[in-house]
Specification:
With 504 residues, the chain is of the alpha+beta class. Among the domains are: 34-193, no CATH class; 329-503, Histidine kinase-like ATPase, C-terminal domain (Heat Shock Protein 90, 2-Layer Sandwich), CATH 3.30.565. Helix content is 55%, strand content 15%. The protein has helices at 10-24, 34-82, 90-100, 136-149, 175-227, 244-297, 303-325, 344-355, 379-398, 433-437, 454-465, 493-503, and strands spanning 104-109, 112-118, 127-130, 154-160, 167-173, 340-343, 363-369, 374-377, 407-416, 419-426, 469-473, 481-487. The protein has a five-stranded mixed beta sheet. Helix 5 packs parallel to helix 6. The radius of gyration is 48 Å and the shape is rod-shaped. The two termini are 59 Å apart.
Amino acid sequence: MPAPDQGQTVPEALTTAADAAQSSCRPVSMFGGISGKLLWLTVVCIMLAEVLIFFPSVASMRLRWLDERLNAAAAAAIAIDGLQPVELPRDLQRQTLEATGTKAIVLRKDGTSRLLATWDMPASVDAQYDLTSVPAVTAMRDALDTLVFGGDRMIRVYGPVQDTNIGVEVLMKDKHLRNAMLIYSRNVFLLSILISLFTATLVFFAINRILIRPIRRLTGSMQQFSADPENPQHVFVGDGGRDELAIAGRHLTAMQLQLQKTLKQQSNLAALGLAVSKINHDMRNILASAQLMSDRLVDVDDPMVKRFAPKLLRTIDRAVGYTTEVLSYGQASESAPRRRLVPVTTLVEDVRDMLAIDPQSDVEFVEQIGADLEVDADNEQLFRVIHNLCRNALQALTSGNAGASPRRITVSAHRIGSVVSITVDDTGPGMPQKARQNLFAAFRGSARSGGTGLGLAIARELVLAHGGTIALVEKPSIGTQFRIEIPDRPVSLDDYRGRSLLEK
């Protein structure tokens, strides 16, 4: 798929690519697609096979033709030899030679050779062939030589007569032999064409039924689905076979169903974004009013108010900050972290205060963090990450599926070199298998009924923006444990030199 142009959004690029694919997927004729190519390929393969068969076949035909002429000459030679000592008249010799298609007949018997008949005796012989024992390679070579160069040559052929010790030798023109070989070659060629077409037709219809039809069903379903992917009727329905195409069809069905589900989720997410934007607008106005009223609480001379007013102000400030950034989820990326050294203890205490754990719930919140431990991170973004994890843990501990005491949330942190590791552990019922399979996936990774799974998805995105990692840790006891690792920013050489000069 081509990359989108500058200024073109990804959905627009996908739509353009889909339109291009749709315009290129025009239906092809039966003989213009794969089936037509298969038909011609079968014809060509059979013709090549026939060529390989042709040379031994024409060589065998040539030997049979010469053997027939030699047998006919042998019969005439034995008859003439039986008339001895009477010499055969010249006219009868000519007729005998014309009947056998030869120029001379020689009989080899009892170690002697006798010229029995001759007519128009040639001055020289162009080639000679012994039919006693002819190797296959020699026979094919001689046949090809006759086809290409023969037609006006005088040849000498000799061989035994059946199973006797009598031999016959003849002289003849190879014109009739070459003509017979050409006729035979033409017949073999025509027969090869007929066999090729017949076989290719059978193969064509068989492959068309077994292979081409299922492929056309697959491509047709793809074209219909790409034109209207939200229509359930365009999902491919396979035939339940076990071959490779049936397996591909089932995978196509699963992919189309998954894509429809994703499109539906995207549509719901778009509607949710529109609703959130409207709610966000009104919520900001409400929080702004609450912020103005909470500012006045600072001036109230009451110890209880003075104790909780700063926390209330921080909470409202965070809520206002969240509303300004709530629409950032789903965009190309979250806002870049504004990193600084943050005391982990203060951050976790704010999370504990925000959770407002009910003393009646018997849920303990345990902090195992060094007092001087600092992490190089965005204070608000890391607060959101830890708060999401602790809130999920609190909901698990206070749900109906929670086990017996103790109910405890433990947040621990320590530094290893340039990396700060933060662990959020609880003693709840643990995370179900379905939630583990879709961990950090929005709208699919929720561990409780009615949840959206956005908390973990947002937490992962914020941690990755810091160059860190967040993972579910397997533990031998019940409960859920997440580990966050945030590395320090690398120190540039100029900053290091500046610090060194200040220290000096």
